[in-house]
Amino acid sequence: MINADEILYGPDSFYCEKFSCRMLKERCVNRQMGLRKRTLSNMSVAVCSECPQGELLKNECEAQTERFESQTMTEEEKLGIDVKQVLEEFEVLDRRVESLIELARNLKQERDALSVKLEAQQKDVLRMLKEIEDLHSGRDRRMRQTATMMEKIKLVGLA
Fold first, then answer.
1. How many angstroms separate the CA atoms of 43 and 37, rounded?
2. Which are the contacts of 54, defined by CB distance < 8 A and separation ≥ 6?
3. Contact 29, 57 (CB under 8 A)
4. Tens-digit pLDDT profile for residues 86-130
5. CA-CA distance, 29 to 64, in Å (whole number)?
6. Is-contact 17 53, C-beta < 8 A?
7. DSSP state, 52?
8. Which of 24, 87, 119, 158 has the most other CB atoms within 10 Å of its CB?
């Protein structure tokens, strides 16, 4: 539970010289600007409007608010720049990925075309090997036939 001393002697209060009392800075600034909330006291706001201590306090509070807002804006600006950079990097990466996908599609088409050519050439090679095998087996048969004929000729010539 907050007690009166914490409120009156905390960082949000000060000693008002005009009224010789402790007061919240916010109340003083409100009185400086002519904003008087309903209170039990009958203190006139007009007395506060020209108070040098109150004017100083009001300027100090406004400066703090401006510093806070400028720091906030700076952080927002930094965040905005970072977000823009990230978005730009994502766009660059996205374009790069798209170009890599296109390259992969082109390479796949080339591979498919080469695969078709290779299959055609493989068929030609297999056909040629079959022809060679047939010629070779035919040559062996003719050689055997020739050898058989030569033996018959030798036998006939000797007989």
1. 11
2. 16, 18, 28, 29, 31, 32, 48
3. yes
4. 888 889 999 999 999 999 999 999 999 999 999 999 998 999 999
5. 13
6. yes
7. H
8. 24
